[in-house]
Structure formats: C-alpha cells, structure tokens
Specification:
Elements lengths: L1 H6 L7 E4 L5 H11 L12 E7 L2 E10 L5 H7 L3 H7 L3 E9 L8 H21 L5 E7 L6 H5 L3 E5 L3 E4 L2 E4 L4 E7 L4 H6 L30 H5 L15 H13 L5 H8 L4 H6 L10 H10 L2 H12 L9 E8 L12 E7 L5 E7 L5 H9 L8 E4 L8 H8 L3 E4 L6 H9 L13
Parallel strand pairs: 4-5, 10-13, 13-14
Antiparallel strand pairs: 1-2, 2-3, 3-4, 5-9, 6-9, 7-8, 10-11, 11-12
Length: 438
C-alpha cells in the first residue's frame, strides 16, 4: 500500500462517485471497522459515496436526511417551523465521513469533500427527484476541530444543546456537537425561505425552461391575480371549495416553475405555505387536489387563458437582444374523431422557453401569412427572430427588419433553390462569423 500512496501523491487524481450495489457490503464493513461511530442505518433518503485514487478506495462518505431540529441552523436560515417541515427535504446531512487509515495525503479530506459537494445535488435529484440546496454536518469537538470542513468552504454556526432523538422524544447525552453548513447553490438560504421554491431542472430526457415565480408580480395592479379574476368560472357555484383564481394561479405558477402534468401541479402546490395560498386567493389550509385542478383546467376557456397569460408575461420579459423562435406545431390527440388536429404558430423566447404569443393556423391557409399577424402586437425591436426554411420569404424578412425593427435568422433549404445557390456562390465558409473584417 505504501507504493500506492507514493504513486497517488497528487490529490487531484482522486475521484468521488456513488457506491455501486455490489460495493455496499464492503462500504458497510469498512465504515464499521474504522469509523469511531461504526455503521448504523442512515435515516431517510440517503446516498453513499466512495473516493477512489487509481482504483484504490481512499475515503467513504454517507449522506442522509437533515436533522429535524437544530437551533443554530434554523436561526441561520430564518424559516418558520411550518415552512421548515415542507423544505427540510432540500437539506442533506453528512452523517459519515471516513478517510481510510492507509491514506494520509495533504489536503485529501477537504478535496474529497469539495468533489462530493460538486455532484451531491445532481445525484440527489437523479435518485430522489429533487435537489439539495444546503449541506449540514455535526462535528464532535472533543475529537475533531472541523478543519477539513472549513477548508472545503463550510461555515460554522455554533453548537447543539447536546440532545439526541430517541423514538418520539429527545434524550440529553451531554456531548454538544459543532454545527457546520455549506450552501450548494447561490442564495440557498433565501431560496429556502421564499414563498415559491426557485425552479429546478429535473434530470430527464427533456429539460423544460423555467421561471422564478418570486420575481414575477402576483398581487396588485398588473399582477397575476388581477388578470385571472377576469376569467369566467365554468363551474356551477354550488359546492365550489376553491375559487377559480386560486386553481388557475397555482396552475400557472407551477407550469412556469416546470410542472408539466396535472399531478406535477398538485405536487408543486403541496409545498405552498398558508400565507402563500392566501396570496393566491385561497381561504383554505390545503391547496386544491389533482382531480380538482384537472377538472377546472379542462373546462376552462384555454384560448382566453393563453392570451391573457401571454399579455401578463410580456412586460416582464426583456426582448431586446434576445432570441425569439417562431415555430408551428400540430397538436396530436387534441381533437375529436373525424376532425383535423389544430395547428398553432407560436412565438417562444429562446432562453426562458416562454410562449409570449400564439395563433391558430386555419385549415385553408398556412404559417407564412400568419407570421406577421403573430408578431404584430409584440414589441420585438432589437430581438432576433429565428424560423425554419418555410419562412424564408421575401415578404417576411423586410417586415421583420423594417416594420418590427428586429433581425432574423432563417434556414435556407431546397424550397428556395435560387436563394440557396446564391448563398453557395458567395462561398461564405471562407468568412466565418468570428473572423475579422478584411
């Protein structure tokens, strides 16, 4: 092993990854043999990691659910108990950290911690469907000084009162622990106390753009609630528990935050506090259920809601210098048998993925004459409009540049053979966009 240590003198060669299923027994045995607390089952959601250097195990880490109560941490975050219970799953506790006895490299412990923190939130999201915003740990001051945590960027908050949870209560053990925390995202502490959780890109084949609802106006003049109050409730008044404005406000905010199904909207709503529900027009302690959300949205005038949301979002989206994609889609499965599926032409912001305008394309026309009507009400001066080869038209390009004061980027294909040949004759490959003017 001494030769392996010599060959691995560079700490930068260490990697940290989750423990594989076939390695879990070995991880438990090493932890039980060398950690002063031994191995105990980790409570709640957990992840086990191993640090490896040239195929040799050098350190082990275990993460579990955050402590239910921790006065220094809770005071530092500044959240109320009701909000804490809904957001506690966004914290993870480093319950075990062991550098194996054979390995004594300078800065190894802090380097392993830093490598683990870089991937912890992403791994947690992959395994459990949500990120980790804040990491915490408890250090026994009678044994350690927390040097590696400090070197890895952790912050000391104080000490516990020396109690441990036993069953349904707490028992004093007389050994206060140091409390250390490490935010895993910018403004993590603010995010944990916001009315709405910041958007998170779940790891899936398609990643939907999302908006931070906390930055959008909800109350007062020009807010979402005022706009939604203009909608007509399609339900009968008898037996209505949740106002239309509440159901639609929750649905709009959840969709902007990344929810893409009725179930996802309902799950997102469960995180809302009582105060936030009241802001959204609710008079109840609990948000509407998934069946309620589904029934209301299916009965609602979708075209009217789409237009109103686009008008509400537009003043809060900066268009100058941004990319605006114009694209048409046929909505398969959104029509009755024997009827033609509806076709929509949409204007979508590239970065945010927000649809700011949408227009139905009739059966006896196509997207080309509808594009000017789609862009007419939009203040797109300074924006760059992108579209596919269908819109590479002599009438469309001047309209965008001269009337809308914007730029365009069109694809040219075989539907415009003369234009395509003219571009080929210019040999533009000799003048890439990054080249200086000669």
């Amino acid at each position: 092993m001494a030769e392996a240590v010599h060959d691995c003198a560079a700490v930068t060669s260490v990697i940290v990854r989750p423990v594989r299923c076939e390695e879990r027994l070995r991880w438990r045995q090493l932890m039980n043999a060398h950690h002063y607390l031994g191995f105990r089952p980790i409570v709640g959601q957990s992840l086990w990691y191993v640090a490896i250097c040239e195929e040799q195990w050098v350190a082990l880490l275990g993460w579990g659910a955050a402590a239910l109560k921790c006065a220094p941490r809770d005071a530092w975050i500044g959240w109320k108990p009701a909000l804490k219970f809904r957001r506690l799953h966004l914290l993870a506790n480093n319950v075990r950290f062991l550098v194996l006895p054979e390995w004594h490299l300078p800065n190894l412990a802090s380097h392993v911690l830093a490598l683990n923190l870089r991937r912890l939130s992403e791994d947690w999201e992959r395994y459990y469907g949500h990120p980790i915003l804040l990491a915490e740990t408890f250090v026994d001051a009678s044994r350690f000084r927390g040097t590696c945590y400090r070197a890895a960027g952790w912050q000391w908050l104080g000490s516990t009162q020396g109690f441990a949870k036993r069953g349904a209560g707490y028992v004093a053990h007389g050994q206060p622990k140091q409390v250390w925390v490490r935010p895993l995202r910018p403004r993590a502490r603010e995010s944990l106390t916001m009315a709405f959780l910041p958007p998170s890109h779940f790891l899936r084949k398609e990643t939907f753009p999302m908006l931070d609802i906390n930055r959008l106006p909800l109350d007062g003049e020009g807010g979402l609630i005022e706009m939604l109050r203009t909608l007509v409730d399609p339900r009968k008044r008898r037996g209505v528990r949740h106002p239309l404005v509440t159901v639609t406000a929750i649905s709009v905010c959840a969709a902007l935050a990344g929810a893409r199904s009725f179930k996802a909207i309902a799950e997102w709503a469960k995180d809302l506090s009582r105060d936030t529900l009241r802001r959204l027009g609710s008079q109840r302690w609990l948000p509407p259920s998934e069946p309620t959300i589904r029934r209301v949205l299916q009965k609602l005038d979708a075209d009217r809601l789409d237009v109103e949301i686009g008008r509400w979002l537009l003043p809060h989206c900066r268009l100058a210098g941004q990319g605006l994609s114009v694209d048409g889609k046929t909505l398969r499965g959104a029509h009755d048998a024997g009827k033609i599926a509806p076709h929509l032409l949409s204007a979508v912001l590239h970065q945010e993925g927000v649809v700011i305008a949408q227009r139905a394309v009739g059966e006896k026309t196509n997207e080309i004459p509808e594009l000017p009507h789609l862009l007419a009400p939009l203040p797109i001066a300074g924006a760059v409009v992108t579209a596919d080869a269908l819109h590479a038209q002599k009438e469309t390009a001047p309209y965008i540049v001269e009337e809308k004061k914007a730029d365009y980027l069109f694809t040219v294909k075989d539907n415009q053979p003369t234009l395509k040949q003219d571009i080929a004759d210019l040999h533009l490959e000799a003048f890439p966009p990054s080249a200086r003017n000669l």
